[in-house]
Amino acid sequence: xxNVVIGQCKLCLAEDVRLLESHLLxxxxxxxxLSTQSNPHPLLxxxxxxxxxxxxxxxxxxxEDCERLFAKNGEDYSLRVAADRKxxxxxxxxxxxxxxHGKLKDSRWSDINSSPKVKRxxxxxxxxxxxxxxxxxxxxDPEDSTRTIKIELGQTNTESxxxxxxxxxxxxxxxxxxxxxLTDRLSQATIYLPGRTSKVGFRWGxxxxxxxxxxxLFLGKSIDPAASRVCLIHSPERFIWxxxxxxxxxxxxxxxxxxxxxxxxxx
Length: 267
Known about the structure:
Strand content: 25-35%
Order of helices and strands: EEHEEEHEEHEEHEEHEHEEEHEH
Distance between the termini: 31 Å
Helix content: 25-40%
Number of strands: 16
Number of domains: 1
Shape: globular
């Protein structure tokens, strides 16, 4: 029998409650895909490079009510439409609705008018819940007991996300989220846990990939008009972008390998 953990839930802040074994990324994403017919594991990109693995990042963080809130508001729907070895429901739906070619090479997009049945609020909620989870807890690294997994969003941004996830406040206009549906099989069989991707001036970027989804979160002290125009939440069109992601996936692995070689990853 597993030990019962009593503590404070990091979302609702209730004290002396039973904390469930929470996942940084929902366990269902690991179950959805087979990277190959002979190896039933997704490709996991981490500080150790890319490998086939079903290691899940988890710890006792949230109470039962908050776990249920995450499932209802985002996780359940996102899991249903994510890629698996049989297909990719969200990509199929967007393709049926018709896609518009973007200005960037090989990019296409779908707006809310052309794909109104896609539950954009659920997808955005799911993504922001993952970024928030990655920021509020030092998650044990299943590959290395001496390391933890965490991103730094800043106290103000982290609290803004917590209140958004509880339904207490809207997402600040200085925060934007872009969403890509990836068409290549490599990305559809890949999990890339949240990490920082960019820093330009006083704006920071973070991203993660899971089963054909790629989300990018951008934070700063002021509004970025360019980011707002393509944002899943703030743009009037509520854009979903569609592109091949294999190059970016391999680029991420190369970046990780270079970082490892320079021993620049902090514990």
